[in-house]
Design brief:
about 130 residues; mainly alpha; two-stranded antiparallel sheet; 6 helices; 2 strands; about 5% strand; binds zinc ion
Length: about 130
């Protein structure tokens, strides 16, 4: 697994190394390829797309993702549920890019919406008898 600095350097170098014309040509080629693959086999395309995203955003291989999934018994680490229609999301610290675990869409979005103010949310719920 790559470090956060290695991932940031890779993303920065990848984005800065090409001319605007190269970027536009690549963008159009990728758009057409993306469309053709998606139309030919939507399910396989969805899985490949997610694998590429994991590699690009987190430096995580499909095997490493699978190991995390097995360690969590295939379930969200917060609620124990899962999403029928998508993969569990990779929860990470947005400052350090350090991976924390896999969460269902609802729990991952909930953490993101609170923007790190979990103590405030906990205090609020306790003050109103919610915990
Ligand atoms: Zn959950």
């Amino acid at each position: 697994m790559r470090t956060a600095d290695e991932i940031r350097n890779y993303q920065r170098n990848w984005a800065e190394a090409r001319s605007p014309a190269q970027k536009e040509a690549t963008k159009e080629r990728k758009r057409l390829t993306y469309q053709a693959r998606r139309d030919a086999d939507p399910e396989a395309h969805r899985e490949l797309h997610y694998q590429a995203l994991l590699k690009f955003k987190f430096g995580l291989t499909p095997i490493e993702y699978e190991a995390m999934l097995i360690a969590q018994s295939g379930l969200c680490e917060i609620c124990g549920g899962f999403d029928d229609d998508c993969f569990l999301s990779v929860d990470h610290d947005h400052d350090t890019l350090e991976l924390r675990g896999l969460l269902c869409r609802t729990c991952n979005r909930g953490l993101g919406d609170l923007k790190g103010n979990l103590e405030g949310a906990k205090w609020y719920l306790m003050a109103h008898g919610g915990i």
